[in-house]
Amino acid sequence: MRVEINTLPGMGEIANGYEYDTVTGDVISKRESTSGRRLSGSTNKGYRIYTFMLKSIYKRSYRVSMAVTEDRLSSLVAAKMPVKKAVSTKSTAVAEHNITKGWIIGSVNGNVMSISETPKVHVTESSVKIEIERLAKAYPGKTFVKMKIENFVKATGVSWS
Q1: 27-61 per-position pLDDT tens digit
Q2: Distance in angstroms (rounded) separating the CA atoms of residues 19 and 36
Q3: Burial level of 11, CB count in 10 A (0-12/13-18/19+)?
Q4: Is 113 helix (H, G, I), strand (E, B) or coil?
Q5: Which of the listed residues 81, 101, 129 is the one where a domain comes to its end?
């Protein structure tokens, strides 16, 4: 089964025409050919990374693509797939709460840290950097922090994702 990558949580900025094959784990681009071609991605520090063009509405003069690791893609697809009894609670925890790995931004005032009840999860480090710089310019003197979401634990027994 193939899943459109831009339908995955946090991937809405990606242009149409990229698919993830759930059987083979391949990433397919149909942007140049309707039959599609397998993307090989690049490898950096042991991680396979795929770079996707953004939809025109998200393009900025300094940012026209998004890089996503292979692990991130496979975890998002696993979370989107219907949960079957054979699937581990690892996928269930992510699917039930729509939690994604990435970065969120908060602020610090004295000893009090504050984040939104529904923070935006930035799936790329460049995205969170752009936003934290925008906030710093908009609110001079205020301290902002970048926090990384690496794992989740469901309270009904410990199950790392």
Answers
A1: 999 888 777 888 888 887 778 888 888 887 666 65
A2: 9
A3: buried
A4: strand
A5: 81
